[in-house]
């Protein structure tokens, strides 16, 4: 993308090509802004040097370069995009999304309890599959279905809802039963349990998961399901905190009345008795409801974690919204993997993200510390943060070399150089110090 727009810039350095080290630094700065809860702050405030900005930003790269990289960040080949869009609405970010999901499946094994739900990534720009969900905080955005570990909050599988796809390899049905079957593919046949809400739960789905995928399901059920007996739906004559159970060979259903006018209906293929959970302090609450309450919030918890240190910046491009969402999930998943591998200092998420940001920007910062044609204050601070001695940055000139004085307006040659920065300077622009005064000056500074 940079090669296509380079001709639009008058100076070649304004659109110079990037590499892996610089892209890692860009991701690191995004993580750092999210860690500081400043991702929505203007770059002018982040890059200011009056003491109110963040030093790591202007040490790592310039504000203009940061905006340039974000502006031209793409995840596919523009030349073939229209051809791929003819069969896939997610074509602009499909490759990156699939690679990320495959790695999530590959590098971690979830526990026995999982959750399926949707998450909404806030976006109000132009998008052919933008959704409106009134009970979500953002209300408008891109809907993503997720499979999350109910214990560790690790996200293992994702699917972006794009509506009806064109005919082709990505044309799949979008009913709840089909979505769940695709989402649970990584854990199919493992005997795990899936917890979901009443949008997903249906009795054909419970039977399908049990017979074809060897998975159990616990979820709330809508009252309009034809399989429910009338006694489970009509609760006018029933006392408060009363429970009615129904048993089949593979499924248990219950109807619980927690308060007047309220009826909670659940179905479970994991539980097969009418056990009451006495540990909750409510002597009439069934164990199925307690289990559902403990495992239903996996995706909601991940949403909360993402919102706490969100890397997303304001954008009008929906692929960037998905990209920022993947970055947030990568921060959570990587911490879970690091903790499972016994790494130290990963228990506090804010500090983990901060260390991750510093590690991603370190290589680029050290490379930038080698640049000499910048203000001395910036150069010396970069060298200090990168742990580089100034003598290793500027190599001394060979003996006998004569060059023009750096400070003279006329072409005056000199053989003398500054011992600090190795710039050539004539005697009229030099200040003499004896060895003793030099030592005192170095000690003071």
UniProtKB/TrEMBL annotation:
Q: Where is the PiggyBac transposable element-derived protein domain positioned along the sequence? A: 7-334
Q: Which InterPro entries match?
A: PGBD (IPR029526)
Q: Which PANTHER family match?
A: DUAL SPECIFICITY PHOSPHATASE 26 (PTHR46599:SF6), PIGGYBAC TRANSPOSABLE ELEMENT-DERIVED PROTEIN 4 (PTHR46599)
The protein's name in its UniProt record? PiggyBac transposable element-derived protein domain-containing protein
Look up and give the organism this protein is from: Photinus pyralis
